[in-house]
Structures
1.
Amino acid sequence: MPLHQEACWLFLSPHSVAVTPRGCIGRIAYCVGAIAADVKPSRGTLYALGAITSVQLGATVARHLFAFLGPSGTVSLRVAFGAAILLAIARPRWPRFDAAQWRAIVFFGLIIAGMNLCFYQAIARIPLGVAVTIEFIGPLGVAIVSSRKALDFAWAGMAAAGVALLSFSGGGAVTTLGLLFALAAAAGWASYIVLGQRVGRLVPGPDGLAFALAMGGLALLPFGVAGAGGRLLNVRNLALGLVVAILSSAIPFSLEFAALRRLSRQAFGILMSLEPAVGAAAGFLFLGQRLSLRDLIAIGLVMVASAGATRTAHPPAATDVP
């Protein structure tokens, strides 16, 4: 799937993820060696910010759905509808994968399921902005480890300081269990990036992710049934689950794709570093979640670390993708 004669894979992530192997942090498109040839920064910036906003709005709708389905039921619907959307977009033919390809796809699907389940369990217990910030450590860590520059370890220290501040937040806003779920989601996001590269090499095009997301939906089904039972089939709940999937997957997928065609990899990654702030704003405006000054400083530290790591990262070498 060429983009301006550079190799680019577009992967719709479970609750969306987009990262280049070294430094470009986003949530929907997974792009290797893609460099925008037709740079239109103003419009591209709006598209990128729109994608970030849509993802966080999706999380706030999901948080309201917790009252009816709980985190497990909500994430089950979200991933199932997300898989249906991607399958409709990709329209893959039933492939003849070999054993190695199926193993990678199934494992990838389990990573997708675990990452989303942990993230939804986290935002059920801690403020959205805090959960998004902690989860962001996953792709940030992959970017820093891949670069191995001395300055990047300073960015890692800054991010660690931010997470430490959030961990010791006062007033009970951050519970230990919520923090652990957010850290597990961060580990899942990092695993998603690393394994996504392997699946992308083994399975050409979007078919690998489409089937992996379907596998993730199947893996989450028992959790959804256990958490929500027959309420999963309630028409209102189904409609809200579809809204969550559209806001978290379909709309950001389209907007980030448009943004990547107009922005440089570095500019796109820096814009994605605003996501924790947008998550905090969405939590405040739509969920009534107030953060302390220390929380805001901590979020700022992680944002600066993310933008700095993106700014100083070496551009990845272009990779030919069949």
2.
Amino acid sequence: MIARPVPACRKAPHRPRVGCPPGARPGPQDGVRGHLGYTRVVPAERIAENLAFINWTVLTGLAIGSFVAVVLARMRTDATRGFLAFTAACAVVLGILAVLSDQALPVASSGSPIRIDPAFDQPRRVALAAFTALAAVYVVALARRHRAPWIAAAGLFAAAATLVFGALAWAGGTVFAVPLLLQLVILAIATGGVFAAMILGHWYLVTPKLPEAPLILISRGLLAVVALQVVLFAVWVSTGTGPGVGAGPFSVLVGPWALFVWLRLIVGLIFPLVVSWAALQTARSRSMESATGLLYINVGTIAAGTILAAGLYFGAGLLV
């Protein structure tokens, strides 16, 4: 004897619900999902749910990266006091915003495979506040024409501690702490470095007789950092690095997050690499207006790449 399937109970349009036989289950037209289905969270929604962490990554990266650029320019070039003090002051403002954003970080990443360790939250906040305070002291030292190498070194140490504690808190374990730390450091140097380079480009527009050495140095460093990001992208994608990668090497290129991964590669890495090379060549030829325009473009593309990288990590556990 063949068992007949249990009929579905449907509601006819513009009429009350038709009587259903015993054991009937709700049909799809009832709008009831029951326990057999659920609404799948799409990647864009997952990224939006982790905007607090993305905001922290961008603000902290801008503050730390621009401070690193100032210290490098102060120690290695004859950059003007005005540029150094102004960019360092920007790092202080961005650091304050990063401290405020850190206070608003949730204790758990919504819908993300990342396991957060709250034990490192307070050390990270203390280190970030110390970095901001030391950067403010360095601004005063620069305004008074002091080199202040010990203050600069202390600020760099506090910046490194901030990123270390961040990696330990968000790596989901010690296995991914080192790759995540490397990602945070590279993102900070790239994001803040291009911001400092763009500011320096404006100084040449106001004072055209400035030597080109500072802009060439920062542009060369920016090109090297972006090139390193491309190499790390290839390594991490080919090895399936990240707490959210479960399907093996290169799976992120075709999975549900593939659109954002390709945007990270093309918009956030390949295009900035080409523009960084062009900015370096124009700076060497003293075409400072062209170099500044290219750096303006790079600010947007590198910032977009940082947002994508942070969103992919905190939303899906992907290192790219």
